[in-house]
Amino acid sequence: MRIVSGIQPTGNLHLGNYLGAIRNWVRMQDEVAEKGGQSLYFLADLHAISMPFVPSELAANTREMVAALVACGIDPQRSILFNQAQVPAHAELEWLLTGTARMGWLNRMTQFKDKSGKNREGASIALFTYPVLQAADVLLYQATHVPVGEDQKQHLELARDIAQKFNNDFGNGAEIFTLPEPIIPPEAARIMSLRDGSAKMSKSDPSDMSRINLTDDVDTIMQKVRRARTDPAPLPSDPAELAERPEAANLVGIYGAVTGWTPAEVLAQFGGEGFGVFKPALGELLASHLAPINARFVELRRDRGALDAILRDGAEKARALAAPTLEAAYAALGLLRG
């Protein structure tokens, strides 16, 4: 079993990133290692240049993201942690796969439509071919499984289509690429904004009060939870009654995601209570849970040399794993290599 997954180095990870993805990465890392498999997690800095960016911020955010991932529990000794730019095979394989990918396939990708908006002609080619690089990211390592959210299932299906067509067209009876299977973590939490229960918690929200950052100290966490938007009614005892109360449902969901409780179990303890009781309890829970992560993150972020060493070591391992697949792809296409 080999798991591959990436995350863009946007900096400033928040509670939604942690509960929605990174915590599951840590869990999978441990489960896969126990089964003798491998986990590869990468910082998708090549993907990041598909949208407007500041080069100095990209470099800083890449290091900050490494610090955050390690602080959250990704162990460079149990997983391979690296950034794409140090493994040129990602870009090489993407180009080889562009001969197999089809315009019609890419035109159906909803993420390009969402991110390009009304100015599709002004979007970068990198944004349009983004899913082909994603395919290269996982096919390069013969990934057997890829953890994906609902918004990325379409891209993994494209990767499988590209792999299947490449195998059929150029494999000569051999399987050049493994067709990866999706892993959709059943416990992946969808964390919403503290200011708007109908919008996802996001770094791009102009209000810092809308999110709990992994860099927030205890006082800041307590203040943000205390000022989170809610309604005047007390918490119900029946989870079904949260359906029309998105902000209340979000806070209950956060409490449940951290503790592992269902909404019914959270409400069994807090049903009938007002937010004057529930918010302090939630704030203390988050502060206690995130404090060790915050302390480790702050320590790691100061040591640029250590972060660069983690990336360098991970990239060396990734390059070694990628080499046989890349060579097989070149050979299958009849491209001569020295």
Structural category: mainly alpha
Largest sheet strand order: 1-2-3
Order of helices and strands: EHEHHEHHHHHEHEHHHHH
Overall 3D geometry? Answer: globular
Summed over residues and divided by their number, the pLDDT gives a mean of 93
Tally of DSSP β-strands:
5
Which ranges are low-confidence, i.e. pLDDT below 50, for 5 or more consecutive residues?
A: none
Figure out the total of helices: 14
Separation, N- and C-terminal Cα atoms: 32 Å
| Beta-strand fraction estimate | 5-15%
Question: How would you describe what is shown here?
Answer:
- By secondary structure, this protein is mainly α.
- The protein has helices at residues 15-34, 45-48, 55-72, 89-98, 103-107, 110-116, 125-128, 130-139, 153-170, 218-226, 246-259, 263-270, 275-301, 304-332, and strands at 2-7, 38-43, 80-83, 145-147, 181-183.
- The strands form two sheets. It has a three-stranded parallel β-sheet with strand order 1-2-3. Strands 4-5 form a two-stranded parallel ribbon.
Q: What is shown here, in short?
A:
Helix content is 54%, strand content 7%.
